[in-house]
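G.,

No rush on this.
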Amino acid sequence: MKKAIIILSLATLLMFLGWNQEATSAALSLFVTGHIPGTSWTVPFWGMMAFYCLVITVIVTLYVEEALSFRRDSKALHARKSRMPHRRYSHI
């Protein structure tokens, strides 16, 4: 459910940016030069670099956590399936 919301919001954002040329230009201006649209302010280069590093760290962390949890879950599932059933003797 969470992935569907993220994918839907990203698709909506991409469609909006595809149809609105001014929004695309403003977004690229913000991400490349740090110029805040509608103002004369700019974000310092070190702020932009810190933001980019933070975004990359979050993306890599999410990917690694998902990969490790998938490996851990598949290992646990495989360990449960590979065990032989316990022998039960009837001493009647």
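When you get to it, here's the other one too:
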Amino acid sequence: MTKECVCGVEIADNRTLCKECAEVYGINPHEWPEWFRWKFNDLRREHVSNISHNHLRLDDIEPNGSGGYRPKREVALRGCRTETHLYEERGNH
């Protein structure tokens, strides 16, 4: 997952703002303009939701072995299971 600054630049997970926004607006949220604070909080809520997988349905998760859950892994089909074989008779295989 990537984290996004208010200006749209990708930033590291341990950062709150990119270097430019930190220089322009500062790092104290109480000094930010209202629109900037609103956008920052909105992006933070979205990021936390994505990290906690709240957007997944029960059918899309599995236990992670540590008491929590993770998204189910996609199963890769191996061998001759291509789209052309899906519609052929079993006897042809």
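The mean pLDDT is 80. The first helix runs from residue 19 to 25.

Enjoy the weekend,
O.
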